[in-house]
Design brief:
The chain is α/β, with parallel strands linked by helices. The chain has helices at about 35-45, 75-80, 115-125, 140-150, 150-185, 185-200, 210-220, 220-240, 245-260, 265-290, 295-315, 320-385, 430-445, 465-480, 490-495, 520-535, 540-550; strands at about 1-10, 15-20, 25-30, 60-70, 90-100, 100-105, 110, 125, 395-405, 405-415, 425, 455-460, 485-490, 500-510, 510-520. Among the domains are: about 1-130 and about 450-520, P-loop containing nucleotide triphosphate hydrolases (Rossmann fold), CATH 3.40.50; about 205-320. It is built from 17 helices and 15 strands. The protein has a 6-stranded antiparallel β-sheet, with helices on one face. Strands 8-12-13-3-14-15 form a 6-stranded mixed β-sheet, with helices on both faces. Helix 6 (about 185-200) packs antiparallel against helix 12 and helix 8 runs antiparallel to helix 10 (about 265-290).
Length: about 550
């Protein structure tokens, strides 16, 4: 609710501060006194267009400030989402209007028009000749109809909304996965080609290339190796006067000498070991020379294998170990993509289940809405009749639409206030007085389920009198049991219902000025008396007293 309004240098107002009651607030004053300027100020602070002409002549800027009290959970969430400080007992909204710009602040922080628009929808409705908000707009009609329904309907709606949210999230995942998968189909084929190319090489030994190079070197020089090793064998043990025979002769000499001098025994033993080693070496050289043979077929095989491995190294890594590591990564990547393909199938199945569930809940909601619509139509029509709109017809139009978070229904309120006219969308009702009474009728029905706390009516009493005025006054009094109500009125019966009464006066001396007075009980009676007879007389004061006594 609005706790207070502060205005400075705005249109014809120098400066004023109004403290509102949480119930029924009445604004009265002479015709043309500027009562609507107060409503205009509230409207502007909540996002209505502010022209530079609203700055009081001679001033540099106009300032409007509202102090709001609001403890709704949805408002708290809005502030937290936007990282604003939240104090439910004091939300300060201010508007500064200059020649070149307008700035809106919430709790001292500049905010966007989008934020103010959302905040407005949570806090306030203004109904006047020039504009009306929330209920008149078709986008809110389905929510109003749902609010009128029973708890079972509301539970089904909550289930549908949660399912729809899950469906949209799942659909987004599915579309992204499908798009990504289609974009990488060529990559999948290339990965398979790479993996197959490495697999066909059958690389088991990361040192295979080094070993093949060594083998190739041997085979390429087989003849030279054979000749060199056999020649060495021949010199050690094959020809006359070979090294083995020479060592045998030396061994005999040292053996004989050691019989004379035992100190030669170690030499003798070393000669024996050397002789045995040389004999073994000569055997190895002979065997090696006999085993080495040129093999052109094997050389071709090795060259072909080395060429294959070198080609793979150019593509997949500098070493065979690198190739093996690359192969592992390629397989992992392909498996990941294959998983994505499986995920797409899973998401398709999940979407099908969600669509089935949404189809069931949306049909249930649609049937329930049609049943509730007829009941709500009668309830609002009855309220309209009380408010001197007896020939009005009110109809809730439900048409099929593409499934959304609310189901498959497009809901719009239609009305005809004249018997000779057909039904029209509520938003096209032109008369300010009529639309205010229509909104009052709707508000009366939805008083307990309405999220908006403050309702402002400008000229709600246009074109009515007598019994209708009493009905409007009673409806407003009933509404203020659940809402803060601010009303501009010319009807004494309505004004008498007010708990808080503001009187707007205009003075014209050197300049035109508007002042607003918060009336005490005595002055309330005088203001009501003026509304009743145009002057303060004993008779009009008695009438005012009687109206105030009967206001409950």
């Amino acid at each position: 609710m609005i706790k207070s309004l502060y205005v400075k240098d705005f249109i014809l107002i120098d400066e004023l501060k109004l403290n509102f009651d949480n119930g029924f607030n009445v604004i009265t004053g002479e015709t043309g006194a500027g009562k609507s300027i107060i409503i205009n100020a509230i409207d502007i602070i909540f996002g209505a267009r502010a022209k530079k002409e609203v700055i009081k002549t001679g001033s540099q800027k106009a300032v409007i400030e509202l102090t709001i009290q609001d403890n709704k959970e949805s408002t708290k969430e809005l502030f937290i989402e936007n990282e604003f400080d939240y104090n439910p007992n004091e939300i300060i909204i201010s508007k500064e209007i200059t020649e070149n710009s307008t700035k809106t602040r919430v709790n001292g922080i500049i905010v966007s028009q989008d934020f103010i628009k959302i905040l407005r929808e949570k806090l306030i409705d203004i109904h006047s000749q020039h504009q009306t908000y929330t209920y008149i707009q078709p986008k809110y009609h389905i929510a109003l109809l749902d609010a009128f329904a029973n708890n079972q309907h509301k539970q089904t709606l909550l289930e549908h909304k949660e399912t729809y949210k899950t469906y949209i999230e799942t659909l987004k995942l599915y579309e992204n996965a499908k798009e990504n998968y289609s974009q990488i189909e060529d990559k999948i084929e290339f990965l398979k080609f790479q993996i197959k190319e490495i697999e066909e090489a059958s690389i088991e030994n990361p040192n295979e290339d080094t070993e093949l190079e060594k083998e190739l070197d041997i085979l390429s020089n087989a003849q030279a190796l054979r000749e060199l090793t056999y020649s060495s064998y021949w010199q050690l043990y094959g020809n006359d006067g070979n090294i083995v025979d020479a060592l045998n002769s030396i061994k005999v000499n040292i053996n004989k000498a050691s019989t004379y001098d035992e100190s030669l025994n170690p030499i003798q033993e070393a000669l024996i070991d050397a002789l045995e080693n040389i004999k073994d070496l000569s055997s190895q050289l002979r065997d090696y020379s006999e085993s080495v043979e040129p093999n052109e077929q094997r050389i071709d095989e090795i060259n072909e294998r080395i060429s294959l491995l070198n080609n793979l190294k150019r593509k997949y890594g500098k070493t065979l170990q690198d190739i093996q590591n690359t192969y592992k990564k390629l397989c992992e990547e392909l498996n990941s993509i294959n998983f994505s393909s499986e995920k797409i199938s899973e998401l398709e199945q999940e979407l099908e289940l969600l669509r089935t569930k949404l189809d069931n809940t949306s049909k249930t909601l649609s049937e329930s809405r049609k049943l509730n619509a007829s009941v709500l139509e009668k309830a609002i029509t009855d309220e309209l009749e009380k408010l001197e709109l007896p020939k009005s017809r009110f109809q809730i139009q439900i048409q099929p639409c593409k499934i959304n978070s609310n189901g498959i229904d497009d809901v719009e309120f239609l009305i005809s206030t004249n018997i000779s006219e057909g039904l029209k969308p509520l938003i096209k009702v032109a008369s300010g007085g009529e639309i205010s009474r229509i909104m009052l009728a709707i508000k009366s029905i939805f008083a307990n389920s309405d999220e908006v706390d403050t309702v402002i009516f400008d000229e709600i009493d246009t074109g009515i009198s007598g019994k209708a005025s009493q009905s409007v006054a009673d409806a407003l009094l009933h509404l203020c049991s659940s809402h803060q109500v601010i009303v501009i009125t010319h009807q004494p019966i309505i004004a008498a219902k007010g708990k808080k009464h503001f009187y707007v006066a205009k003075s014209q001396k050197d300049t035109t000025k508007i002042s607003v007075h918060d009336l005490n009980e005595e002055n309330k009676l005088k203001a009501i008396a003026i509304l009743a007879s145009g002057d303060v007389t004993q008779e009009s004061l008695n009438l005012a007293k009687q109206l105030v006594i009967n206001r409950q």
